Structure formats: C-alpha cells, structure tokens
Amino acid sequence: MLRSVVVWGGAGQLGRVVVSHFNASNRWRTISVDLLQNDEAAANIIVPKAGPVESNALYLINALRELASPDSRAGIDAAVCVAGGWAGGNIASSTVLQDFEGQLSCNLRPALMCAHVASQVLNEDGLLVLTGAQTVYKGGTPGMIPYGLVKSATHHLIASLALPQSGLPARTTVVGILPTTLDTEMNRKWMPKEDFSRWTPLVQVAGTVLKWADGRERPQNGAMIPV
Predict the structure, then answer these.
(1) What is the model's pTM?
(2) One of 22, 28, 86, 147 is an active-site residue; which one?
C-alpha cells in the first residue's frame, strides 16, 4: 500500500519538484493542495480563494479524509508546506504594510493552515515539514522586514508544534527547512548577476524531504535544517 503525502503549494515551482520526486519513488501517493492544479499529483485539492478561514480549513480536512487510505486512521503520513513568496523593503517603504499583508497570505497562513489540518488528518509517527528561511533564522532582516516577520513567526510555530500538548498526533516529527536562495526561474530573473552555482537546487530540497518521509536520517523533532 502506498503511503500518502500532502504537498501544500504543490503547484508552485518547488512544490512541483517535491511532487515529482515523491512520485518517482513509487512509494508515495501525492496530494497537491494549491490554488492551481498539478496534473502530476495523484490527487488535487484546490484551495478556496474566498470564504471564512475556518470553513476553508474544514473543507480541506474533509477533502483529505475522503482521500484517506482505508487501512489507516487518516491515511496521510507526511505533510509538506512549500507554499510561499518573497517581498523586500525596509520600514520606510511606502508598501511595507501592504507587503506584510501579502506575506501573511502567501507564507504564514499556509504554514498555519497546513499544521492545523495536519493535526486532524496526519497519522501517528507522521512527518510535518514547514518552510522557514535561513537568513531570517540567523538574525534581523532590515531590508526585507515583511518577509522576516512572517518567517520568524513560522520558526516560532515550528518550535511550538514540537513541544508536548501542541495538538499534533502522537510521535509526529516537525521539521523546519531553512533555504538560503532556491534555484528557481523567478530568482534567476530577479537576480541575474548572482552566482547560480551557489544556490540550492530544488531537487536537493525534494530529495531531502523524501528521505525524511521514508524514515531515513529523519531529524529530531523541532529541528531547523538548512537546505
């Protein structure tokens, strides 16, 4: 029986690579959760663009339960959130408040939603992976305050979820991945003069997450791992 992984942001650049990597292993059934469809995934759940947050969460929980494997409590063995985006700007920027709202929507809310849904559908001994940021983890980010704020909150969420009574199923391993610069088409477009060889390939991130999901070299609960 294939195990099931849900990939939040499964139609994005990194999400598509994660889905493809899990598919290629022939050990996992992939479920993409996103605003758009990923035809490579075994199943897709399209996130509602409007409506109360609580209603959207219940919709996702019920949809995942319908897709659950019949021989397990919930059928979801790993949840991976790679949804996100970036915004720069210091505190004097005229768009700092707008950019902060945007970062909440594309970074923090998906991470929080993924964790909440995982609390309801993840099997015991499962894996929950959320995406932080290595630059933010190291300290202040004066040139990208909106991004730094939401990623700091994501790091706090990861640390909190790893503690007892967080609400996650028994023996869940929560891990934060800390990318520096991912080698994506968009990053190459906006930073054409950078040394791409120093960036993290998407397949490297996907391979690392798959390894952990398979139970190989899985970090300790609450670990923050640079990738």
Answers:
(1) 0.93
(2) 147
